[in-house]
Design brief:
It comes from Duganella violaceipulchra. This protein is mainly α. It contains 7 helices and 2 strands. It has one domain.
């Protein structure tokens, strides 16, 4: 029998949702490597031919590397958010599924962006990044506003830090798209800036914690 919360909504097990999250992220991260293959028409009978074929894979390799760590970052973000959750409701379930739809689409976007250096490819890739960021922000907002779902409430500092990270990814994805109009194939390097978002978020959490301690 499904338990009901105080507002009559069913209390859904967070563990089954987390298992689904883990499975989809694992599959998506594995699918990324499928695009790293030598062209079927390539002749690699010699050392020089093999080296030339591998050099031709560099754009795909860069796209794989960025996409793999982007998925890792979003998986960590989901894991962090669900650490606050005791049980889920229908709203959190569907917002999480929305987030997973973006994760499942990233291998396709990575393939498009890696194979063809074009503005359209960058638009697809950046669009999926923004999609995942918005859905992660919506998950965080739902958890922050529904205290009945939580083992312990998400602090305002943790919520603000999640907002900064999510909007930061959106800004970086938008910047990559703009650069893609000028220099297709070079814009992906902008996503290296995502490495600054974690320490920035931690700094914001510490600032709010200090403010709460002195209040």
């Amino acid at each position: 029998m499904t338990d009901l919360s105080h507002d009559g909504q069913p209390q859904l097990s967070k563990h089954r949702i987390e298992a689904l999250v883990d499975g989809i992220f694992a599959v998506a991260m594995t699918l990324l490597v499928i695009d790293l293959r030598l062209p079927e028409h390539a002749h690699v009978a010699t050392e020089a031919a093999l080296q030339g074929a591998l050099v031709g894979l560099i754009p795909n390799l860069i796209s794989w590397l960025i996409s793999f760590f982007v998925l890792a970052i979003f998986w960590i973000a989901n894991h962090r958010l669900y650490s606050y959750v005791r049980h889920a409701d229908q709203g959190l379930l569907w917002l999480t599924i929305l987030s997973l739809s973006g994760a499942s689409l990233l291998p396709f976007a990575s393939a498009v962006n890696g194979q063809i250096a074009s503005t359209t490819g960058q638009m697809v890739y950046s669009g999926v990044m923004i999609w995942m960021s918005v859905s992660t922000l919506l998950v965080a907002r739902h958890i922050h506003r529904h205290l009945g779902l939580c083992v312990h409430p998400m602090s305002i500092g943790a919520y603000r830090a999640t907002m900064v990270r999510s909007f930061g990814v959106m800004l970086i994805a938008t910047l990559a798209l703009l650069i893609g109009y000028v220099a297709p194939g070079k814009a992906n390097f902008v996503f290296v800036l995502m490495s600054t978002l974690r320490p920035l978020g931690a700094r914001i959490e510490r600032r709010y914690a200090r403010a709460a301690a002195t209040a």
